[in-house]
Amino acid sequence: MKYLFYPGCSMQRSAKPYLDSLKLVEKTLGLESVDVEDWNCCGATEFSSVNRTASHAIVGRNLALAQEQASGTDELVAACSACYLNLSKTDHFMREDADFNALVNDALSAGGLEYEPGSVKVRHSLDIIVNNVGYDAVKEKVTKPLSGLRVGAYYGCMIVRPDVNERFSNPEEPYELEDLLEVLGAEVVDFKMKTQCCSGHMTQISSEVAYDMIKQIVKPAVEEEIDVLVTLCPMCQLNIDAFQNEMNKHFGTNYEVPILYFSQLMGLAFGYTEKELGIGKEFVNVSPALAKIGKTTEEVPTPKKKKKSKSDPSLPMPKMPIHYRGGS
Amino acid sequence: MTNNFEPLIIGFTCNWCSYRAADMAGTGREKYPPNIRLIRMMCSGRLDPMFVMKALSDGADGVMITGCHPGECHYLEQNYKALRRTILLKRTLGQMGVDPERVKLVWASAAEGVYLAKEIGIFVEEIREKGPLDWPSRKNPAISIVEKEEVSV
Amino acid sequence: MANSKTPSGKPRIGVYVCHCGTNIAGVVDVEDVANWSAEELKDIGVVLSRDNKFMCSSQGQELIESDIKEFGLNRVVVAACSPHLHEKTFRGACERAGMNPFFCEMASIREQVSWVTKDKKKATEKSKSMVAGAVNRVVYHEALEPIKVPINPTTLIVGGGIAGIQAALEIANTGHEVYLVEREPSIGGHMAQFDKTFPTLDCSACILTPRMSEVGMHPNINLLTWSEVENVDGFVGNFDVTIRKKSRCVIEEDCTGCGICVQKCPITVIDDEFGVGIGTRKAIYTPFDQAIPNYPVLDKENCTYFIKGTCRACEKFCATNAIDFEQQDEIINVTVGNIILATGYDLFDARKMPNYGYGRYPNVFTSMEFERLCNAAGPTNGEIVLRDGVTAPKSVAIVHCVGSRDKNHNNYCSAICCMQSLKFAHIVYERTGAEIHNFYIDIRTTAKNYDEFYQRVLDEGTLFVRGKVAEITDVPQNEAEEGKLIVQAEDTLAGLQRRIPVDMVILSVGLEPKGDSDEVAHQFGISCSSNGWFTEKHPKLDPVSTMTEGIFIAGCATGPKDIPASVSQGSAAAARVISYIEMGELELEPVRASVIEEICSGCKICNDLCPYNAIIFIEDKQVTEINEALCQGCGTCVAACPAGAIVGTGFSNEQILAQIEGLMMDFSVPEVV
Fold first, then answer.
1. What is the pTM of this model?
2. ipTM metric
């Protein structure tokens, strides 16, 4: 499968390991991606509140370039949640609102560009991997299962919300990442804060607010004895990783929850080395967690479901469908 | 001239759904252009393609065929027959040199008065855009099939 | 051609244009329409044309009658409202004057012109063309006799909830036979699961079970539970119904309902049906103690004998040898004149809203789970406790509108949830003294004594937060939230976000159409709204009838309703059926198809088109024939016949083609020469 790839700024710097590991995973899975040439920043999360037209025009530029450069594919893939959301949103607003479409295209015409809304399909790398490649094909490539590693899937907010342009997952309860991690052999924990906001750029605006929000994610992860959180968003990774220490100082806590990109865990399961995958550059040391891989789960015995005894007065729990990890 | 062109449209309705939708549009005072004239049949399955030909050849600029939504036919499944006939009819019209888009099929349940009114409005504008129908027989009387048909009725 | 019909007798047509007060006259120049018709349609046979303030008034009708007599009219066109409203009225006037009523035709210039058109000039023109269409058409009308069908006095009622029970008793009490078919092992429906009913707080079982046993003992009611309708053929007055009576593995004639088999059965399973997943039952069971009928059903999936081939405890202990492991389903055929569908509703599946944590957090309950929890016959004997079965909650949140008034799920209001939630608040207050928070969008307490009940619950100290709950979580943000469920909602009255920690959450889930309502509608030849509720013939004036004669609907199958409304509809549907039975026969529109044998080429094209199998090919004569008794008059075969050999009464080719011609009169474009 071939598609156009929109790298975005974060993946050039802070999230470089995300990009590197993703490229290796793509190679293993036979995915062929071509970067959009001459792309520019998506405007991140703030610009739209400063100047709506301009913020969408700069995203529109990327869409127009993709439309122009698309050959043999109409799919534009982003791995950063913010980039993915911005590309989706601009396409959506241009499609829904003819006047706005004209406004954005007017701006684009200054650069000799034009974008016809809906002409490229904006998708996220995770969507491509689980829905186009498929879990079975991923499983085939697993050479070193992540057994023994307790992981929590942390989606963050932007990949699922707002629900524009037919998102690939349930905005309240996405499950693709958990399923993928299970295929990789990891032990997946029901992480209830999985779509909670990481605080975004609040670390730069009001650090107290940001620390509180980061704590809301880290604390439950510690309580669930999660070895490593797994994310698909550079912003989430940065906040949870780089600001965990500051947060600990602020609250006088000593939480230690490492966070990696899903592509890094895929790479590990596919047999790439930590170095190849850019692992080791984190602020929160991930080596104790990764040392657990391969160890049998005997060390952490999971309580077996006991058959209900006659004297147990408790009421049965509702039966749940497969994609809803209820209970505990 | 297309600007002041007022198209004439014949609409075929089903007694159980779209005719009642028209009633409901009336009760709800949903305004739509007066260019459409409705004919009540018991079912869209009653639609003889000849009726459409007759309408188009005698001066209508467009024909709207309406019936119950698929699966909701009062006579179980006759609207599917209307659907098939409409597809075939449109193909025939195309072969005759008549724009097949002058015939439109719209499903409207008895509860969809607002929807029917809206669809009528859209169709009237579509036909207004197309301009008056230049029925082939007017150019060449030799191929006036429909008129012959009409005699045979 | 042989099938072309000349008008029977020289047409003498009277045209009547109604003002309908100002409803028509306010937009359409009725006088102009009448004058124009008299002048321009003279050649077609219009003898006189009048306009009148109210044609449907007795004075208007008398006008038609006297004109028919005085001017020898043999056709009448009334340009007024929709024929669905007053066709009967004007046909009656014609009939009283000695004319065949089917020589009357209407043009709907109110619904199709004056009410929907802004431009007065164009409205008048459209009215003229519609009158012209009707005049053209009425020329080809024929004298018809209405089809009379005898009404079989037996009635089928599908669904044994309170609406079906009510209908069955009403009809059976008039001495007519009823078949009441229920899918579950017992009648009673959802009402049997409830603890209390609002706003009176009557014990639900106490008021329901006497009705149930009345049904069980009624000599005119044939009760078929654990049964489903498989097939329906025929039409009003004479439906042939096939019912599958599922195997219970219990011989009903021999079973005394003593319950020893249930008592001795060693297998206990979670009761997902009546017990909504929090109660238990045995592998042989009656859903509840007061079940009607009280003979049990054997659940083959969980029965040890059916799994392993041994056990047979129930058989051993049965004193009357009523257990029959080999029992097969039974097919029962009945003929009925009318059918009432009271098939009820399903509940919204709370698992579709994962943000409310049902299934994830043990102490999030659905409304029906809570009904069972506080029911004395429920799994905790009526004690309100958390899912651990012992701890009483100290604080409870009740969330309204779960799955209702929500564009992601059902956009409609489920009608009963506000009162249900208030009822829960009262029960929690009365039995536990816990702190109660109700999260609502709007409080809708519209029926008798409902708002008084709301005031009472307010006085009891229940707290109300106006705002849709965003999320229910167990992840605490502070000490007060530790170990609690936190309900996060925007308080739209105070204008702030609230996080309220509680021990228990009750989700007041909405009502949904039955999962198979589409199939049921199709089976009985009625229609569903896009939501899936059965469609009424008229939402206001005929709420228990359907477009299909002889099929009536009652209760929640047509939309969410409380108990009083369901009972009223059960009675109303019964009244409609009883009136049909009392009439003995029903007059139907004589819209039927027939074949002109001399023209039929025997091509068989029409043969497969009829959904009622009314078209038969006669091998001897090599022609097709239509059984008029089976024909419903859709006209599909008429349109399909390449030879024009099939005639559709009431909607013939001549009539429709003539109408098209009339409608084509266009006034905006000058005549093209």
1. 0.83
2. 0.90
